[in-house]
Predict the structure.
Amino acid sequence: MNEQPDMKGLNQLEAGVNLYKYVCILGMLNFGTPEERKVAKRELHELDADTISHLNKAAFSAAADQLGLTRDEMVSLHGE
């Protein structure tokens, strides 16, 4: 039986807020001052840790397939 991509413990509003946070953080990383980039890196690590805790392995596999990432690229991004 194939596991379906799933997110547990977040409702749609919380997921949407996290998505918006990612957009803002990535904007800070790309266009911010050096101080803003430091803050964005710290915030990104915290948001990643929170997001990862709500996703199952099938969600990562589906994302990798859709983005065309190799297994090595996924390991370098996610660590597994």
Summary: The CA atoms of residues 33 and 39 lie 10 Å apart. The mean pLDDT is 90.
